[in-house]
């Protein structure tokens, strides 16, 4: 059996192989990460070698198994509510702050997201190309989004507390401002990624570009927009908790008080309560997303 | 027939050509379509059928030559007048372009969005109102899917979704329906059923109907007039009964030279 000559020399006539730059890019990122660890003087094996560190660590873990269900202090002032009731109230306050902040950010962020997406500014979706040049107003909106989210909510809180004083409204603004910027960016991108054939069609039958956007594109993106909003609400719970360290009476505030009094079992009780809250919220948002996959979105 | 005189002139193309970077999609197409006509555009893929349909409502601008729709030039219209023109022309695209995660009623309703103000349109998508729902239901009865009124659209079969697109086109209250390979995604029996339905509904409402088809037998069975396109040129434009087997084979035979 002899092969034909062309099969015997498979190396000739092959088209040039593609460059495959991505694998080098990923390898480069990993190498940069390792280099950064080395340059920062991080030596993971020394983590628990410090004298006495191991017993402190063991104690801390020990308290994790026995979270507090009552106050750890020997006596509390008369009229103090039971500990678990206090935990529940702190959670409720945290949810309220998260709800108010994310709700406000959703309104502003939806506006930034719509105006920041190419889909909004297309004057004739039916015949214009998808990659039309950037509209100046869109660039401006994108810039505002960037500005808002480039500062962390904790920094916003420090700045706003200094300028406007500490109040619930200012705390809500501190979270809502950077969240608006994040909503603006992510919503704009989700809207640009959404299939736009129906918008092209509607524009082809005489619909205005904005009507084509709202009826042809928004419903396609809506499940993703909603899923992201629910995720941001989960983030909002964490942000509201962190603002407790700046004095807002959310879980973080009580967490810090217990921590400063070295009541680690109370600390764990608050942490478990937060975990439970996020877990319940995660189940609930999963149920909503499942519902949207089978039912009409509007 | 004295061309150009009557009010019943709908489309008029004079030596219309469309050049793409990859080559000519249409070269020197001249034709006239009158009110109430039912015309099939046939020809192999890449013959220019879709481009020809897109010229008629201004989705495509001719590189040279002229296009007139009701004596208006879609290529040289301002946004308001091109929208007014497009409101009179309903479309049934090959991929249907439905919104899959909306209800059937909402998709049908979206056909008339161009006639309404933005706020009215958005409100009616959410709350159509009893009268509109009755009208939509009647259209769905005509197209044979009345039971699907409140179904989510992507739960329907391909053939049923096609009928949603037909109902949406009729709900637009157009004067013309342009259908681009409307039945390419369903089996031959259903394809014939859909084409028969479309032709009957257009005849009943005195609508002008142009459809591009790649099945010649469907064109011959249901359309009085057939325009054969090949390599961007009109090979033949005549009544369906006047098409010979020889013209048919010339249309689809890729290697055959094009008769000028």
Short descriptors:
heterodimer, A: mainly alpha, 0% strand, B: alpha/beta, 24% strand
Could you please describe the fold and organization of this structure?
The complex is a heterodimer of chains A (298) and B (260). Chain A is mainly alpha-helical and 298 residues long. Helix content of chain A is 70%, strand content 0%. Chain A is globular. Chain B has 260 residues and is an alpha/beta fold. In chain B, the strands form 2 sheets. Chain B has a 6-stranded mixed beta sheet, sandwiched between helices. In chain B, strands 2-1-4 form a 3-stranded antiparallel beta sheet, covered by helices on one side. In chain B, a hairpin with a 2-residue loop joins strand 1 and strand 2. In chain B, helix 5 crosses helix 6 and helix 6 packs parallel to helix 7. The radius of gyration of chain B is 19 Å and the shape is globular. At the A-B interface, helix 9 and helix 10 of A face helix 2, strand 5 and helix 4 of B.
Uncertain regions of chain A: pLDDT < 50 for 5+ in a row? none
The greatest interface here is: A-B, 31 and 37 residues
Secondary structure category of chain B: alpha/beta
Mean pLDDT figure of chain B: 91
- Element pattern of chain B in H and E: EEEHEHEHHHHEHEHEEH
Task: Report the count of strand segments of chain A.
Answer: 0
As residue ranges, the low-confidence spans of chain B are: 1-5
Q: Which bin fits the share of residues in helices of chain B?
A: 25-40%
What's the β-strand tally of chain B?
9
Cα shape of chain A = globular
Q: State the order of secondary-structure elements of chain A, H for helix, E for strand.
A: HHHHHHHHHHHH
Helix share bin of chain A: 55-70%
* Overall pLDDT metric of chain A: 90
**Euclidean distance between termini CA atoms of chain A:** 68 Å
Total DSSP helices of chain B: 9
């Amino acid at each position: 059996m002899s092969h034909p000559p062309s099969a015997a020399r498979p190396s000739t006539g092959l088209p040039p192989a593609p460059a495959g730059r991505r694998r080098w890019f990923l390898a480069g990122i990993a190498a940069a990460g390792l280099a950064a660890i080395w340059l920062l003087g991080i030596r993971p094996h020394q983590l628990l070698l410090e004298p006495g560190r191991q017993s402190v660590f063991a104690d801390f873990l020990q308290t994790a198994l026995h979270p507090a269900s009552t106050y750890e202090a020997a006596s509390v002032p008369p009229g103090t509510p039971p500990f678990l009731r206090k935990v529940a109230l702190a959670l409720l306050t945290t949810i309220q702050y998260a709800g108010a902040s994310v709700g406000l950010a959703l309104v502003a962020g939806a506006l930034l997201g719509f105006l920041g997406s190419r889909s909004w500014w297309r004057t004739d979706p039916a015949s214009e190309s998808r990659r039309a040049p950037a509209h100046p107003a869109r660039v401006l909106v994108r810039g505002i989004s960037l500005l808002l989210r480039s500062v962390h909510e904790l920094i916003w809180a420090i700045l706003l507390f200094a300028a406007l004083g500490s109040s619930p409204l200012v705390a809500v603004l501190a979270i809502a401002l950077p969240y608006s910027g994040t909503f603006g960016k992510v919503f704009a991108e989700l809207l640009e990624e959404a299939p736009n054939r129906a918008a092209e069609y509607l524009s082809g039958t005489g619909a205005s570009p904005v009507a084509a956007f709202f009826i042809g594109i928004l419903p396609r993106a809506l499940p993703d927009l909603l899923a992201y909003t629910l995720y941001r609400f989960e983030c909002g719970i964490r942000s509201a908790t962190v603002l407790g360290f700046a004095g807002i009476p959310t879980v973080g505030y009580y967490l810090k008080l217990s921590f400063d009094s070295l009541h680690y079992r109370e600390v764990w009780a608050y942490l478990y309560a937060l975990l439970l809250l996020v877990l319940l919220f995660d189940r609930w948002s999963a149920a909503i997303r499942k519902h949207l996959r089978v039912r009409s979105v509007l | 027939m004295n061309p150009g005189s009557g009010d019943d002139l709908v489309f008029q193309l004079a030596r219309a050509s469309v050049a793409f970077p990859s080559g000519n999609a249409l070269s020197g197409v001249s034709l006239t379509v009158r009110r109430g006509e039912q015309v099939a555009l046939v020809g192999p893929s890449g013959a220019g059928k879709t481009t020809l349909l897109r010229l008629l409502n201004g989705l495509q601008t001719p590189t040279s030559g002229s296009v007139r729709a009701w004596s208006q030039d879609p290529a040289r219209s301002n946004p308001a007048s091109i929208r007014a023109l497009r409101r009179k022309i309903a479309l049934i695209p090959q991929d249907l372009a439905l919104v899959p995660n909306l209800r059937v009623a909402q998709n049908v309703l979206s056909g008339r969005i161009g006639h309404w103000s933005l706020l009215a349109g958005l409100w009616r998508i959410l709350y159509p109102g009893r009268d509109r729902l009755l009208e939509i239901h009647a259209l769905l009865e005509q197209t044979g899917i009345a039971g699907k009124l409140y179904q989510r659209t992507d739960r329907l079969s391909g053939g049923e979704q096609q009928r949603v697109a037909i109902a949406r086109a009729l709900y637009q209250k157009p004067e013309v329906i342009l259908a681009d390979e409307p039945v390419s995604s369903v089996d031959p029996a259903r394809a014939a059923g859909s084409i028969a339905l479309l032709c009957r509904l257009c005849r009943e409402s005195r609508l002008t109907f142009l459809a591009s088809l790649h099945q010649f037998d469907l064109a011959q069975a249901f359309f009085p007039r057939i325009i054969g396109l090949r390599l961007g040129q009109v090979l033949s434009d005549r009544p369906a009964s006047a098409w010979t087997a020889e013209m048919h084979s010339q249309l689809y035979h890729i290697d055959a030279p094009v008769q000028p």
